[in-house]
TrEMBL record:
Pfam family, one: Bac_luciferase
Transmembrane spans: none
UniProt GO MF annotations: oxidoreductase activity, acting on paired donors, with incorporation or reduction of molecular oxygen
Organism: Sphingobacterium deserti
Name of this protein: Luciferase-like monooxygenase
Residue stretches making up the Luciferase-like domain: 18-297
Family affiliation: To bacterial alkanal monooxygenase alpha and beta chains.
Length: 331
């Protein structure tokens, strides 16, 4: 079996009964652990006005984790570019790359990473910034170029640094853009699987080679809950499903311990909504993971699997990372 590239997406999720500081420490511990397992990268996602997510200052968190790891790539999954001036992001990631050379990824998304009221606060009442996403990506690329001596505005640190850009998405719009610009593409199937298959097809069909990438590179972010037994994995996964139910019903809670039954058991409307939102979720023991993930990778021509890990128990969380790695790559 060919090895499958593995990476992780982390939101520094706050667990019930724990603090933001402890959530960040948990992220550091997870990054150090998967680094030793041979994972490719760990990305942190920009979200705002969410009480139980500690990754809002994404660039700061990336630097904190990079300082405490040795060689694993650390990046954004992603920076919601319309929330920021491209120059600021170029300077921030130029600083990160200068401090941790060859280890920084810059994943870019167009969504606000929050609700519309908070988006207005971030974007100073200009909600049209998302329409200029392509222009902002191109501007960011220009700031990283090494041929800007006559430009009036330049990025220091940033200029001349090789910081790989990734286009993120949860719809087909981003697939078209990633293909057009010849950039790697990461799809958020862990919460928005509806357009996953269509977006994957569009990206590969329309991809235009660029000086950054000569062929498509497709990352699929999915939920994987692995344990010693499938029964245990299914039990641990209730924390994930209960969390999504809280999002859907606007009753957001910290990541909570697993339950014997999901909290929405017997409520068909919520059951269907959670199922639709988490259709790209894999739970099971090593044998199940070893069967399901390679088949998924082959069907959609995936180059890298990025897993979330919404497991409440810290030890079980790390164990899941290990089982995934051993099941897929024998590590």
């Amino acid at each position: 079996m060919n090895k499958i590239k593995l990476s992780a997406l982390d939101l520094a999720t706050v667990c019930k009964g724990h603090t933001v500081k402890e959530a960040i420490e948990r992220s550091v511990e997870g990054a150090q652990y998967i680094e030793n397992l041979g994972y490719e990268r760990v990305w942190f996602a920009e979200h705002h006005n969410m009480e139980h997510i500690a990754s809002s200052a994404t660039s700061v968190l990336i630097g904190h984790v990079a300082e405490r790891t040795k060689h694993i790539r650390i990046g954004s999954g992603g920076i919601m570019l319309p929330n920021h001036a491209p120059l600021v992001i170029a300077e921030q990631f130029g600083t990160l790359e200068s401090l941790y050379p060859g280890r920084i990824d810059l994943g870019l998304g167009r969504a606000p990473g929050t609700d519309q009221v908070t988006a207005m606060a971030l974007r100073r009442n200009n909600l049209n910034t998302s329409f200029y996403f392509k222009d902002d990506v191109l501007a960011l690329q220009q700031y990283f170029e090494n041929d800007n001596p006559h430009e009036k505005v330049r990025a220091f640190p940033g200029e001349g640094l090789d910081i790989p850009l990734y286009i993120l998405g949860s719809s087909t719009d981003s697939a078209h853009l990633a293909a057009e610009l010849g950039l790697p593409y990461a799809f958020a199937a862990h919460f928005a699987p509806a357009m996953f298959a269509q977006a994957a097809e569009i990206y590969r069909k329309e991809f235009k080679p660029s000086r950054h990438l000569d062929k498509p590179y497709f990352i699929a972010c999915v939920n994987i809950i692995a344990a010693e037994t499938t029964a245990e994995a299914d039990f641990l996964a209730t924390s994930l499903f209960n969390m999504f139910a809280g999002i859907l019903t606007n009753h957001r809670r910290p990541l909570s311990p697993p339950t014997e039954k999901v909290i929405y058991d017997g409520i068909p409307e919520i059951e269907k909504a959670v199922y639709n939102m988490t259709a790209c979720t894999f739970t099971g023991d090593a044998k199940v993971i070893a069967e399901q993930i390679p088949a998924f990778v082959k069907e959609y021509q995936i180059d890298e699997i990025m897993t979330t890990n919404y497991i409440f128990d810290a030890g079980k969380r790390l164990e899941s990372f290990r089982i995934i790695s051993e099941a897929l790559n024998g590590n």
